[in-house]
Amino acid sequence: MKGIAALLLSVVLVALVASASLAYNCPVVIKQAEDTIKKAEAGKVSPETRQLIEEAKKLLAEARGHHESAKTKRDHGDAVRKAKTAIAYAEEAIILQNP
User: Fold this and answer.
1) Does 59 fall in a domain?
2) Tens of pLDDT, residue by residue, the chain (99 residues)
3) Within a domain: residue 16?
4) CA distance 55 to 72
5) 49 near 96, Cβ under 8 Å?
6) Would the CA dihedral through 7, 8, 9, 15 be positive or negative?
7) At what angle do helices 73-97 and 26-42 cross, to 10 degrees?
8) Most buried of the four, 36, 53, 61, 90, by CB within 10 Å?
């Protein structure tokens, strides 16, 4: 009986720690987006890639807003999603810069 209780307690503690770590993942993904955008800006920027970089910056600003005003896990999820989308736009710009 004590073994089952200890196992259940362990599972609950792991679940709590995992959910807390997901909530604080936003700053890491936002930092990755910032770094990727800087890398895209450092390359040869054309009119085509400039639009992608601007869209990435817009999404990054939205991600920061979601993170700073987050009240629920969904808000943090929105922040992470927008930051990852910003990374994708910046990576596309980097790819288009290299022939």
Assistant:
1) yes
2) 555 544 444 555 555 454 444 556 999 999 999 999 999 999 999 999 999 999 999 999 999 999 999 999 999 999 999 999 999 999 999 999 987
3) no
4) 26
5) yes
6) positive
7) 20
8) 90
Q: Containing domain of residue 48, as a range?
A: 24-97
Amino acid occupying residue 4: I
Taking Cα atoms as reference points, which of 23, 21, 29 lies closest to residue 62? 29
Are 64 and 13 in contact by the 8 Å Cβ rule? The answer is no
